[in-house]
Amino acid sequence: MSTGCVLVAAGSGTRLAAGSPKAFVVLDGRPLLVHAAERVLRAGVCEQLVLVVPDGRQDESTALVSGLPGAGGVVLRAVAGGADRRSSVAAGLAALPPDVDVVLVHDAARCLTPPEQVAAVERAVRAGAPAVVPGVAVSDTVRAVDVEGVPRGGPLDRAALRLVQTPQGFRRDVVERAHAAAVEHGLPAALAATDDASLVELLGTPVLVVPGREEAFKVTRPLDLALATAVLAQQRSAGALS
């Protein structure tokens, strides 16, 4: 049996306002897709890597990733994404061969996710958890509000909150069953787009949260790209992965 990674890179990047699909926005001379794939490959846990990209960019994506360190022993495929995140992940799952029993679903926008985080999630699934997500503690005060901005009760207990990241790891049968149920029951795209663990929880399957890393933040807006540039420069000066 083996582990496969679905690297979701088909988003339009509208909020980033960079004029190209988000995964192809350049960070320090290389697309976000390349930074993300490099870190997945360096984790050394995936025998299969599926890139889910905008239609028409499959060959380009494969060429960008195939020469990265660690890619030589990994079966690499690129497929076109769907109309929303859930359908894009489903396309990636469908491209994995039958012998893959553990799946990691990772957002290319979390392009600086440390290889150690990728490996930790995979290890937790192999240890018996059907679904695993990394999460980081919340430092801000968090309140729930209604549509008019009126608070609903007092501040939420930060000690019980985590900001959920990727990669998210699953037994393959668990995540495929969750996606099938989302289609069967016509789950609204707004709910299905959050993350795959949310779909799994709707079936009553428990999700384990393991420690995440601050570097695994999601590049969504221009400020995030500036932060990623600064983090990458700091890593390089410290002799870490660049």
Describe the main β-sheet briefly. Answer: 8 strands, mixed
Number of helices: 8
CATH superfamily: Spore Coat Polysaccharide Biosynthesis Protein SpsA, Chain A
CATH topology: Spore Coat Polysaccharide Biosynthesis Protein SpsA, Chain A
Topology as a string of helices (H) and strands (E):
EEEHEHEHEHEEEHHHEH
Going by helix content, strand content and strand pairing, the class is alpha/beta
CATH class: Alpha Beta
- The first-to-last residue Cα distance is 31 Å
Q: What's the number of extended β-strand segments?
A: 10
Low-pLDDT sequence parts: none
Shape: globular
Strand content: 15-25%
Question: What is the annotated CATH architecture?
Answer: Alpha-Beta Complex
Rg is 18 Å
Number of spatially distinct domains: 1
Structural commentary:
By secondary structure, this protein is α/β, with parallel strands linked by helices. It has one domain: Spore Coat Polysaccharide Biosynthesis Protein SpsA, Chain A (Alpha-Beta Complex), CATH 3.90.550.10. Helix content is 34%, strand content 20%. The strands form two sheets. Strands 1, 4, 5, 6, 7, 8, 9 and 10 form an eight-stranded mixed beta sheet that branches. Strands 2-3 form a two-stranded antiparallel sheet. Helix 2 links the parallel strand 4 and strand 5 (75-80). Helix 1 (32-43) crosses helix 4 (115-126) and helix 5 packs across helix 7 (196-202). It is globular. The two termini are 31 Å apart. The mean pLDDT is 93.
